[in-house]
Amino acid sequence: MALALTDVCVAGCDNKAYCDPGGFGEFAEISKCPLNVCCSEYSFCGVTEEFCGSNTVERPSCSESGGL
């Protein structure tokens, strides 16, 4: 007897979103993305419009002394 794909489906109840775009709470691994980049509505971190929408991200810059 052959198994159909639906016969071996596994639930991912222990899976979590990576970042919390708002309202995910305990279901996200981290609350904010590293380096203060944006968390998209699909819970991925990035700096482009797809992640940030109309929000802008302040990027660090080096001072003349070489520090941030």
Present the secondary structure layout.
Layout: E1 38-39, E2 45-46, H1 49-52
Antiparallel strand pairs: 1-2
Could you explain the architecture of this structure?
- The protein has a two-stranded antiparallel sheet.
- The protein starts with 37 loop residues before the first strand and ends in a 16-residue tail after the last helix.
- The protein is elongated and about 65 Å long.
- The protein has one domain (16-68).
- The chain contains 1 helix and 2 strands, in the order ββα.
- By secondary structure, the chain is low in regular secondary structure.
- The protein has one helix at residues 49-52, and strands at residues 38-39, 45-46.
- The model has no long low-confidence stretch (mean pLDDT 81).
- Helices cover 6% and strands 6% of the residues.
Class based on secondary structure composition and strand pairing: little secondary structure
Poorly predicted sequence stretches spanning 5 or more consecutive residues = none
Q: Which band does the percent of strand residues land in?
A: 5-15%
Q: Summarize the main sheet.
A: 2 strands, antiparallel
Strand order of the largest sheet: 1-2
Report the principal-axis shape. elongated
Q: Write down the overall mean pLDDT.
A: 81
**Topology as a string of helices (H) and strands (E):** EEH
Please give the number of β-strands: 2
Number of helices: 1
Helix proportion range: under 10%
* Structural Rg: 19 Å
